[in-house]
Amino acid sequence: MSAITRDEVAHLARLSRLALTDEELDHFAGQLDQIIAAVARVAEVATDDIPPSSHALPLTNVFRPDEVRPGLTPQQALDQAPAVEDDRFRVPRILGEEA
């Protein structure tokens, strides 16, 4: 017995604003029936003793721990800049913004 009818497929097509022919309605009804059956088989799996998880394998942090390191001084950072103003990079004005 079909779990989804041709009329239900037509209704879904209208909601999705899809124009389907009669042949397509019959074809998609069969395909959706197979999808619903496959999902039902997955739902039958006994999972009572399996804890929920988001990953199949345990995850470990692969990043190094944060360590404080000395950074550049403003002079070192701006040393090769083409234009500097008030210890900052000077860039061209964009979008006609006022200062």
UniProtKB/TrEMBL annotation:
Gene3D superfamilies named in the record: Glu-tRNAGln amidotransferase C subunit, N-terminal domain
One GO MF term attached to the UniProt entry: glutaminyl-tRNA synthase (glutamine-hydrolyzing) activity
EC code(s) of this entry: 6.3.5.-
Single GO BP term: regulation of translational fidelity
Annotated TM spans: none
Catalytic function, reaction form: L-glutamyl-tRNA(Gln) + L-glutamine + ATP + H2O = L-glutaminyl-tRNA(Gln) + L-glutamate + ADP + phosphate + H(+); L-aspartyl-tRNA(Asn) + L-glutamine + ATP + H2O = L-asparaginyl-tRNA(Asn) + L-glutamate + ADP + phosphate + 2 H(+)
Keywords attached to this entry: ATP-binding, Ligase, Nucleotide-binding, Protein biosynthesis, Transferase
Pfam families documented for this protein: GatC
Enzyme class, broadest EC rank: ligase
Superkingdom of this protein's organism: Bacteria
Similarity annotation: Belongs to the GatC family.
Subunit organization: Heterotrimer of A, B and C subunits.
HAMAP family, alphabetized: GatC (MF_00122)
Protein purpose: Allows the formation of correctly charged Asn-tRNA(Asn) or Gln-tRNA(Gln) through the transamidation of misacylated Asp-tRNA(Asn) or Glu-tRNA(Gln) in organisms which lack either or both of asparaginyl-tRNA or glutaminyl-tRNA synthetases. The reaction takes place in the presence of glutamine and ATP through an activated phospho-Asp-tRNA(Asn) or phospho-Glu-tRNA(Gln).
Protein name stated in the entry: Aspartyl/glutamyl-tRNA(Asn/Gln) amidotransferase subunit C
Organism: Thermopolyspora flexuosa
Record lineage: Bacteria, Bacillati, Actinomycetota, Actinomycetes, Streptosporangiales
Gene (UniProt): gatC
